[in-house]
Structure formats: C-alpha cells, structure tokens
C-alpha cells in the first residue's frame, strides 16, 4: 500500500468508513477510529515480529491444526436434553425441537457442526462468541450466529447489553443478556475474555510467521551468502562492488542458480555452509509449536506429532483421555452452563454433552468395560442392561424382557444351624 493509499485509508477511518477488513484482522476484533487510522498509516505493530491477526495466525499450520482438532472433537459430541426430578435424571424422549437446533441446524445457513467449529474458532482467536436466541414468547424457535465484529458488549445497571450490527444494512440494535448465548474463554472479566493469539501465543505465532518468511527467502533468494569469491589480485572497492553486482545479476534467483559458475582471472569460489540447525532455527520452531499447542489446549500427539506419545500416561489412549478430562471437559462445562441458564431459566431441565465417543477405548477395552457393566458369574452385579449397551452401539433393542433387567448375582442363603 502506497503512502497515498494509506493517507486515504486513514482519512476514511477518521470519517468512520470501514478500512478494508481491519476489524476482522485485529486480535480482539474491535477497532476505534484512531486504531484504524494508525493501522492504515503505519501498518501492524511489528514490535515482536510480523503482526498477529486472525488471518495471519491461520497461516501457521499449528494454529490451524489445533483449531481443526478442537472443533472436530466438539462437533462429534451429541448434546442431549435431560429432566431432573426427585434426584433422578432422565433423557427427554422423543427429541424436542431444541435438540434439533443444537445437534442438527441452529439456523438455515448453518449446520450444528459448523456452528460448534465457529464457536471454538472465535473463542480461541477472539476470546468470545455470541449466538442470539430467537423466541416466540417463552419458546426457543431458533438461533442466530453472529460474527465477533458485529457484536459489542457493555455493562448497564449490572447486566450485559449487546449492541448487534446488521451486516447488510449497518443498523444497530440492542439485545439483552437473556437473549444472547455468550460463549467465553479464559480471563472473562464480566464483559469479554482474553484472546489467545493476542496474549499468550502472540510471540510464538509471530516467530513462526517470521521463520516461514525467512525460510522462503532462503529458498528463493538466499537468506545468507552461500558462496565467497577469492581473487589473487587485490580489488579496490569499485571493482569488488562491480564483481558482486555482476555475479548477483547472473546467478541470483532460482533461474540463475542452475547456471554453471564461470570465474576469470584466477578467481576461486568457496562454499559457505551455515545450516538452519546451526542457527537453532529448527529448535526454536519446535518450541514455538509446543507453545501454540499448550495455549490452544491440544497435545502435540493429537496433531500427529509422535515425539511425545507418553507425556500423559502410557500411550496415545491415555493422552486422549487426559486431553478430554483437562482441556475439552472444562470448556464444554462452560458451554453447558451458558446454554442451561439462557435456554431454560429454571432448574429441572438441562443440557449435557455426551463424552462417550471421545472416552471410548479400542474394541478390546470396550468389550471389557461392557462385560463389567453387564455383570455375570465371576464378575458380580451389573449396572447396565443389555439394551442400554446396545443403544450405545447404535443397535436396536432386543424384545426379550431379560434384556431390560440389570443382572444381580445370586446370594447364598445361609443354612440354619442344626440343634
């Protein structure tokens, strides 16, 4: 962008006109007019390397992979509706219209899977995600998914009020907190949460972006001199500069690198070798990858990195269980609390994610778990019925009444003592 274009963009920002896609690329998704003018005039803040925004963060493969794995894990978990009465919980059957909104399609343009992926992306990159609740009286009839750039939260008389901007018309309307699902991340202060890429992972992502640019220049242009030229005669500064420019003009770039080297007047070429490993570039990138994984809450083994398969437990299965228990489950607990308090507004009915799909072991481990759950001779009392086990495996129930009974081992009847 030329200085003239920057001046025009800054003037447009000062007048309130949107500047390209600046707000979308800003780490926290909100730009004042002065922020937009500064970005338009001077570009991003390069104090710690390349500017880290939503768009640039996705250029780092580790960020993309972490968000894809988190979103994929959440999207495969069903969200069931239950009732609680007299200490007993029971799943709502048949599934209600609310179940369809949460598990199939929250609004016509979105699948539930895409919506959950969007929540993960917004919370990790921006800190918060907002989904509006559409009601007909007290009945929830739909959901409306919002972009973080179109929602601004503020506290009014102790309650949250959301200013929602219509992307098509630009009109702004207010939405009360009871009608807005506000999915938060770490560091929620009562209004908004912290952006992972703006705070904890900023330097690691900027370092990855800078390293990628350096490697690209090394391949195409040469990030460092690869050849030293030696001549028997002393060269003055002008001759050395002319020789250097002539060499670069002939052999510089990808095309010139394929030409045979020709030196006159007794010149000799010496190859210089300083590998990226010597500069600890590869080691630094591994640390950056680990930092990004830690901040995003995804073990490296989940991304296909086999260097640390036993960091939790004895293998990949134990790592996965630890990931679900310490990263996914706390995140989903926050989602459940927000859904329950906004959709029902009273106790007695609640939503809960089923984590069975992620905690399920291999076929052998499943068989052993089901055998213990069903009970039997040598195993003891059961705590599940055959039809309950079949339901977990998506199999139809059996008509046999015994399939709905929990096994109880026969107790020996004490024999009365003979007089």
Describe what you observe in this structure.
The structure is a single chain. The protein is an alpha+beta fold. Helix content is 41%, strand content 15%. It is built from 15 helices and eleven strands. It has helices at 3-14, 22-25, 33-42, 54-57, 61-75, 97-103, 112-125, 202-220, 237-251, 253-256, 281-296, 316-343, 356-359, 363-374, 386-392, and strands spanning 79-85, 88-91, 128-136, 139-145, 151-156, 159-165, 172-176, 180-184, 227-230, 268-271, 349-353. A three-stranded antiparallel sheet has the order 2-1-11. A three-stranded antiparallel sheet has the order 4-3-8. Helix 5 packs across helix 7 (112-125) and helix 5 runs parallel beside helix 11. The longest helix has 28 residues, at 316-343. The radius of gyration is 31 Å and the shape is flat.
Please render the helix and strand layout as text:
Blueprint: H1 3-14, H2 22-25, H3 33-42, H4 54-57, H5 61-75, E1 79-85, E2 88-91, H6 97-103, H7 112-125, E3 128-136, E4 139-145, E5 151-156, E6 159-165, E7 172-176, E8 180-184, H8 202-220, E9 227-230, H9 237-251, H10 253-256, E10 268-271, H11 281-296, H12 316-343, E11 349-353, H13 356-359, H14 363-374, H15 386-392
Antiparallel strand pairs: 1-2, 1-11, 3-4, 3-8, 5-6, 6-7, 9-10
What structural class should be given to the helix and strand makeup?
Answer: alpha+beta
Low-confidence runs of at least 5 consecutive residues = 13-47
Distance between the termini: 107 Å
| SSE series | HHHHHEEHHEEEEEEHEHHEHHEHHH
Specify the biggest β-sheet.
3 strands, antiparallel
Gyration radius (Cα, Å) is 31 Å
- Average pLDDT, rounded to a whole number, is 79
> What is the quaternary state of this protein?
single chain
Share in β-strands: 15-25%
> DSSP helix count?
15
Q: Please list the strands of the largest sheet in the order they lie side by side.
A: 2-1-11
- Give the % helix: 40-55%
Number of strands: 11
